[in-house]
């Protein structure tokens, strides 16, 4: 895929892991269009300022819902969302809604590093899609 459109989101306890994971795939991400919730995007851009990354609102302030709208409009090719399974979230309903939309629209979505690696190394990103 030439310019994959990828959403990157991480809860606070997972933000370091997200930045480290972006480092692993930085070559691919340099030709991707990235979209992140506010704080996650800020952390990624601090480390990789040259990425094409659009920061949306912070998750608890509507960022998850903005990404959900992109899913519903077919504007994403994959979503990587490192969820913190051990902390209660004030915006848990938004997280659930976002996950639900990824299922509804059959969007490849990873909630942990293992699945995120599997997606990035899948034919979706490693081979050119033939379009007619
Ligand atoms: O809370 C989030 C996802 O639910 C992430 O939002 P931030 O990237 O703004 O911290």
Question: Could you describe the 3D structure shown?
Answer:
There is one protein chain. This protein is an alpha/beta fold. The protein has seven helices and five strands. α4 packs parallel to α5. The longest helix is centred in the C-terminal third of the chain and has 13 residues. The two termini are 14 Å apart. The site of 1,3-dihydroxyacetonephosphate has 13 residues, from α3 and α4.
The CATH superfamily label reads Methylglyoxal synthase-like domain
CATH class: Alpha Beta
Low-confidence stretches: none
Structural class: alpha/beta
Average pLDDT works out at: 94
Bound molecules: 1,3-dihydroxyacetonephosphate
Describe the structure concisely for a colleague.
This protein has a single domain (5-126), classed as Methylglyoxal synthase-like domain (Rossmann fold, 3-Layer(aba) Sandwich).
Attribute tags:
five-stranded parallel β-sheet; Rossmann fold; binds 1,3-dihydroxyacetonephosphate; 132 residues; 5 strands
Secondary structure topology:
Elements: E1 5-10, H1 15-24, H2 26-29, E2 33-36, H3 38-47, E3 53-55, H4 63-72, E4 78-82, H5 92-104, E5 109-110, H6 113-120, H7 123-126
Parallel strand pairs: 1-2, 1-4, 2-3, 4-5
Helix pairs in contact: 1-3, 4-5
The structure holds 1,3-dihydroxyacetonephosphate (13P).
Residues 9, 11, 37-40, 58-60, 63-64, 91, 95 line the site of 1,3-dihydroxyacetonephosphate.
